[in-house]
């Protein structure tokens, strides 16, 4: 799309009727719900799937990990495709692929067909998420309005964490494991239908192309990084090899992309912008601590006999609800207090919350753990929307797809490293509570350090 037509589209969007704007935002939020609910409900179906197909635990783990691995590996490709061939087109294609994947999983006659469906779902999510965030950058060019929209978009992450485990558990009990895969189908169809009816098309080729070398090394690096996190506990040697491959492939990726300048799949000059740098670093730090906590706490509660699987899921709900309820206010606070204050304050809340959780482990009080998690959830609600907005708002609209993919890569990388490193620290002292205390203390301290850095670096 040319600059003139993009300007005309933006003007039209600024004057969009409330009903049309609601339809636009509903379509984009449905994409978040698709990607986030899928993982949480699938976790609850793993055990009955294993019983039905009579397969070992090692195979069952790939019901979840096949999705995560493909999603991580193809994020950059999804962002580039959105910029080159049309953000609405890629968004709708991602929703359609996810719908087909959901049907394939629900009707899978054997475990191989189910795993193929999970791979296809990862491909759909890799197209959906970058396109969704990129469309917000293009459709709401005004920074203040975009901040409000991003707050609502971010709230869907918390909503998914809140309703996913409970809904998944109820579906499995009432209708069996196949029903959890049907859950994403109406969201995918709604997203595609609304997008086709309300979202104008936009694309920015401008000399960029589908760089094969960049695609291969980028996918290999991200996929190997995800594999390192997935296999850390089960196969540490394989995990170490995957981490080395990720580092080598990442280095080669940077070399290939540096030759193409602004026409690269990932234009490296983006990283010279202080706001973009800050958003990427803060996003990775945020998910490092939070995903580590969400991974380790239910594991600790169940191992210690404090809570069962269902109880652990319900214990995480207050954090998720506060995340969802706090996110819509992040845009207003950013306008009032500034980007650095809101992001720094949000990360600081997460850090203090994780330190409270670390202290509660020593005391053995579940109420204190809940207080810490609620504080951390509020911090995530305040920081997530502004971080996404800072990343895509710091770049020109023509790079919005790549920026959206990169900030999601930062989320994935932080989460992977958080689960891997904090999980290793926990395992070194398992079953002693000291391991969890050290892991939560490290995660919280990192949040506070990055909070101070973000407060000083971001405007």
From TrEMBL:
Membrane found in the keyword field? yes
The annotated topology with respect to the bilayer is:
Multi-pass membrane protein
The chain positions of domain Major facilitator superfamily (MFS) profile read 24-459
The cellular location(s) given in this protein's UniProt record come to: Membrane
Indicate the transmembrane segments per the record: 69-85, 90-109, 115-140, 152-171, 177-200, 212-230, 236-254, 275-301, 307-325, 337-361, 373-394, 406-429, 435-455
Listed under GO cellular component are: membrane
UniProt keyword Transport, yes or no = yes
- Gene3D superfamilies, A to Z: MFS general substrate transporter like domains (1.20.1250.20), Multidrug resistance protein D (1.20.1720.10)
- Extract the GO molecular function terms from the UniProt entry: transmembrane transporter activity
Alphabetical keyword list: Membrane, Transmembrane, Transmembrane helix, Transport
What this protein is called in its record is: MFS transporter
Q: Which organism is it from?
A: Acidihalobacter prosperus
């Amino acid at each position: 799309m040319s600059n003139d037509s993009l300007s005309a589209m933006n003007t039209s969007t600024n004057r969009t009727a409330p009903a049309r704007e609601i339809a636009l935002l509903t379509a984009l939020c449905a994409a978040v719900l698709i990607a986030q609910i899928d993982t949480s409900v699938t976790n609850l179906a793993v055990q009955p799937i294993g019983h039905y197909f009579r397969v070992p635990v090692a195979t069952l783990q790939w019901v979840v990990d096949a999705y995560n691995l493909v999603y991580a590996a193809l994020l950059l490709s999804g962002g580039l495709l959105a910029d080159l061939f049309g953000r609405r087109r890629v968004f709708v294609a991602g929703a359609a692929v996810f719908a087909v994947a959901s049907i394939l999983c629900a009707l899978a006659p054997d475990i191989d067909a189910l795993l193929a469906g999970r791979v296809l779902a990862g491909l759909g999510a890799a197209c959906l998420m970058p396109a969704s965030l990129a469309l917000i950058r293009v459709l709401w060019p005004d920074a203040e309005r975009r901040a409000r929209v991003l707050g609502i978009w971010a709230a869907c992450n918390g909503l998914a964490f809140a309703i996913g485990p409970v809904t998944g558990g109820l579906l499995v009990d009432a209708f069996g494991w196949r029903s959890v895969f049907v859950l994403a189908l109406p969201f995918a169809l709604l997203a595609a239908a609304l997008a086709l009816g309300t979202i104008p098309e936009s694309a920015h080729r401008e000399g960029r192309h589908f760089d094969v070398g960049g695609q291969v090394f980028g996918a290999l690096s991200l996929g190997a990084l995800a594999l390192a996190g997935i296999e850390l506990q089960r196969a540490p040697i394989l995990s170490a090899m995957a981490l080395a491959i990720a580092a080598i492939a990442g280095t080669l990726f940077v070399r290939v992309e540096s030759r193409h300048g602004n026409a690269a799949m990932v234009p490296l000059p983006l990283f010279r912008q202080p706001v973009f740098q800050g958003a990427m670093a803060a996003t990775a730090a945020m998910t490092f601590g939070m995903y580590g906590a969400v991974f380790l706490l239910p594991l600790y509660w169940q191992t210690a006999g404090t809570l069962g699987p269902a109880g652990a899921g319900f214990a995480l709900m207050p954090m998720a609800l506060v995340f969802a309820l706090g996110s819509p206010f992040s845009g207003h606070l950013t306008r009032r207090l500034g980007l650095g204050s809101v992001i720094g304050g949000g990360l600081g809340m997460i850090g203090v919350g994780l330190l409270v959780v670390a202290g509660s482990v020593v005391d053995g009080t579940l109420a204190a753990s809940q207080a810490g998690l609620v504080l951390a959830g509020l911090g995530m609600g305040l920081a997530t929307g502004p971080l996404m907005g800072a990343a895509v708002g710091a770049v020109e609209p023509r790079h919005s797809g790549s920026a959206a993919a990169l900030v999601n890569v930062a989320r994935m990388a932080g989460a992977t490293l958080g689960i891997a490193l904090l999980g290793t620290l926990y395992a070194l002292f398992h079953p002693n509570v000291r391991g969890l205390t050290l892991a939560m203390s490290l995660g919280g301290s990192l949040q506070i350090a990055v909070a101070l850095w973000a407060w000083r670096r971001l405007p």
